[in-house]
Amino acid sequence: MNLLRSLVLIAITSLFPICSESVGEEIVIKPTSQIVDLTYPLNADNAYWPGEKYKPFELHTIATLEKDGVLSKAFSMPEHLGTHIDAPNHFEPNQPSVDQLTLKQLAGPGVVIDLSMKAEVDADAMLTVDEIKEWEAEHGRIPDGSIIFLNTGWGRFWGNPIRYQNRDARSQLHFPSFSGPAADFLIQKRKAIGIGVDNLSIDRGISKDFEVHHIVNKAGKFGLENVAHLDKLPPKGFSVIVAPIKIQSGTGGPARIWAILNE
């Protein structure tokens, strides 16, 4: 098994190092690299955006080994369900669809900003520019070309869709996320290639205008939502690879996301 893993990683490494278009960041995967999967498995229990036309994930068996000599299944789901990517065309016209994003646009250094303590006392908490600067004062400047994750602590509710959505008596969602100014700072001043969060949206649950989505998508960048296991990552010192489903003209879709911890 160790030999097989080494061979697989060597094969993957043959595709790397990847150089980010922004800063020439190298992503090198070694047999000894620690890799954290930031993706939840897709199943019927996945939380999803409570829109009128949204439906849960469905998986059906269409052929069996016993009857057909082959096991095969069919699935259906909205693009924006489970761990997924919001492509730049999701909220803005004349921006790339998910199939037009290149590998260099989907890989780079990773950063985690922890908002969990603030979110513990305020479900509507938002990351501010001052808090980003406080993070940088402790950990150093965020590298250009990074993928910035916000750990709100919401991942602990993933197995409970009702708590995860956190709706009030008027069906208003309540969960924390980025503020508009913080997103603008990360995209414009730190040249982030994407931002991600461990809940339903890169905008807060109470958002009505989806300011963060517009800021990110207007710049041709992507968002990542329902990202798993951010609590297992350090604030910095890792690289990220995002591998979304390639739907022609798609506005997003399920994505496998890996963090490769640097030694």
Describe the overall structure.
It contains seven helices and 14 strands. A seven-stranded mixed beta barrel has the order 6-12-11-9-7-13-14. It has a two-stranded antiparallel sheet with strand order 1-2. It starts with a helix and ends with a strand. The chain has 263 residues and is of the alpha/beta class. Helix 6 (180-189) packs parallel to helix 7 (211-218).
> Helical amount among residues, as a percent range?
10-25%
Give the number of DSSP strands.
14
Mean residue pLDDT: 91
Number of helices: 7
How much of the residues is beta strand, in percent?
A: 15-25%
Uncertain segments are 1-24
User: Radius of gyration from the CA trace?
Assistant: 19 Å
Principal-axis shape equals: globular
Strand order of the largest sheet: 6-12-11-9-7-13-14
Judged by helices, strands and strand pairing, the structural class is alpha/beta
Give me the strand/helix succession. HEEEEHEEEHEHEHEHEHEEE
